[in-house]
Amino acid sequence: MSWGIELWDQFDNLEKHTQWGIDILEKYIKFVKERAEIELSYAKQLRNLSKKYQPKKNSKEEEEYKYTSCQAFLSTLNEMNDYAGQHEVISENMTSQITLDLARYVQELKQERKSNFHDGRKAQQHIETCWKQLESSKRRFERDCKEADRAQQYFEKMDADINVTKADVEKARQQAQIRHQMAEDSKADYSNTLQKFNQEQHEYYHTHIPGIFQKIQEMEERRVLRLGESMRTYAEVDRQVIPIVGKCLDGIVKAAESIDQKSDSQLVIEAYKSGFEPPGDIEFEDYTQPMKRTVSENSLSNSRGDGKPELKFGGKSKGKLWPFIKKNKLSLKLGSTPEDFSNLPPEQRRKKLQQKVDELNKEIQKEMDQRDAITKMKDVYLKNPQMGDPASLDHKLTEVSQNIDKLRLEVQKFEAWLAEVEGRLPARNEQVRRQSGMYDGQPPPTVNTCAQDRESSPDGSYTEEQSQESEVKVLATDFDDEFDDEEPLPAIGTCKALYTFEGQNEGTISVAEGETLYVIEEDKGDGWTRIRRNEDEEGYVPTSYVEVYLDKNAKGAKTYI
To answer: What is the Cα 300 distance to its own chain's centre?
Structure first.
């Protein structure tokens, strides 16, 4: 099967076919190039997607990734980043192994095709020239033969005519001989030209054209083979990344299998557990008995002394202090957080303190590493003075040592708070007893035996109990004398303490479970009610700790909080 033999007369069609083959190759190159661009764009989009959903540093999102489900999602994002990298590898390999390689081959192929068809056209032009020479020699031979025949006929006519002179006959005979000789010469030239043309034509159709067409055939077959190899490479480039892509997918599956719902549930408990006991049952109120709307001093004192120990206070908390208390409430509401995290429930406070201790220990370790590095540098300077002055490091060394001492003091302070909190958590101490069912038959706990772990402050937050002393001391301030003449607020109702509350913060007042007091200012929406025991003792208590009875002229109904 040879194009030179089978397609000896299809020069133009072969030229069109080879050009079509190059166009197909260029089309495939364009296809692979666009595929590489798609892979690169896809990889970029995957990386941007992974980056978009990565947790931001030093943000609340980082805390969320302690849950196993969030950790699995983070692993998925990381695996998708690696997955995107494999698509970048596909794009790079397709560009280097197929696109660039085929582009160079196409240029070589075009040059080779141009050379082969140039040789073919040159052979065509040569055989056409030989054919033209043959046609010219043939026409000349034909013309000379006709001229010789006419000359011979003219001679015979002159020779037969008796009226023609002998000289004219001789002249006609010579002219006929000349024409005959010219015809013989043309015949010989035509014969030689024909023989030469036949030889050239034989070489053209059996040597030159088959050789040129054979080269074109080999060139086309190489093109087809190269296209097939490129297609195989195209598949292998994809196949090479399949194991790594499989590992990425296996990593996502492994991350999904690592999700532990029980562990996440426990983390939710650790994150939001307050450490408080739920409130007890609410006492039944008998409305069939007429209720006294006003309570005298004697009834108040009797209610306090009826089987219930009387609280002792080392100072007084008058209404004159409240302008400054409200200022403190405002500052807390604006976002200031106590250094000891006393505004948090016990369990949350313990975690915050432990976190602070760990951070301080890390800072201490960092400072100690820096001190060790400076010390080593100073030793090097002492051994090699040309490298530097050892005295220049003394100031830095002193500064680092001072920082370490300060940080250690901070650690001791926070560890003390932490130890205090851990000693008061429900698992380590007596739980808060706030069940209202203890009103009858059991004496209420005294202030010094109450295991109240957390108390609310006027801003609605929680504070840690500061001491275990039996008496709650409310310190008098230097402003007492300025408000001695202040007119007390009128009572707008009464209230009954549902639980024991130790008011240790400035502006609060301690009450015992079951105690009845006057209400002088109802809850304004911040969770605190202002009450009065007597003329010298008044303050705020949590609204949820008391049951309020307002006078009809004030609110007109009994309120449950």
So the answer is: 66
